[in-house]
């Protein structure tokens, strides 16, 4: 198909305001053929696709796969819900799989996490005991600096690992419940 013929078809499609399509959809038309363009504009064909037609102007609307790839259009059907797109032609099978689409490692958890079955075990994979010990150590350093400002010892006590675990649990539940 030469450039002049393509320009003529584009001008015919641009002249169509789409009123015929809207009227057909209101009358109960369930399917129509559309094409996706690479610049994400959509051209809708008002022709029925259930019957075979042999006129030259209808052959010009749906082009051959080679020209579709050149222009970046892929023909598809619109489903009854008017949002699902179904491809008309099968995808090419003789295309080489790209190297970034090849799965090398199976999905799933790594060796250490395979044995963690309960939520506390899973959480301990992220926050281990050494991290908790450092939190306790640096919190107690801060508390000793503040003890000078208080007259009674019970107003500013040192913390331990159990209190830190409880604090992390409360913060986790508050985030989970979006409080």
TrEMBL record:
InterPro entries: PGBD. Residues 1-74 are annotated as: Disordered. Residues 14-27, 51-60 have a biased composition (Acidic residues). This is PiggyBac transposable element-derived protein domain-containing protein. Pfam families: DDE_Tnp_1_7. Coiled coil: none annotated. Transmembrane segments: none annotated. Residues 119-177 form the PiggyBac transposable element-derived protein domain. It comes from Parnassius mnemosyne (clouded apollo).
């Amino acid at each position: 198909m030469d450039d002049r013929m393509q320009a003529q078809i584009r001008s015919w499609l641009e002249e169509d305001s789409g009123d015929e399509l809207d009227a057909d959809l209101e009358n109960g038309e369930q399917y129509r053929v559309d094409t996706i363009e690479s610049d994400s504009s959509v051209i809708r064909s008002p022709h029925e696709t259930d019957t075979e037609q042999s006129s030259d102007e209808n052959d010009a609307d749906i082009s051959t796969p080679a020209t579709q790839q050149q222009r970046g259009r892929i023909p598809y059907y619109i489903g009854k819900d008017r949002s699902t797109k179904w491809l008309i032609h099968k995808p090419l099978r003789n295309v080489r799989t790209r190297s970034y689409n090849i799965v090398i490692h199976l999905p799933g958890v790594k060796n250490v996490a395979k044995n963690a079955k309960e939520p506390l075990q899973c959480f301990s994979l992220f926050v281990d005991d050494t991290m908790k010990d450092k939190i306790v150590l640096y919190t107690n350093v801060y508390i000793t600096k503040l003890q000078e400002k208080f007259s009674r010892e019970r107003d500013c006590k040192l913390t331990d690992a159990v209190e830190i675990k409880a604090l992390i649990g409360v913060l986790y539940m508050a985030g989970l419940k979006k409080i």
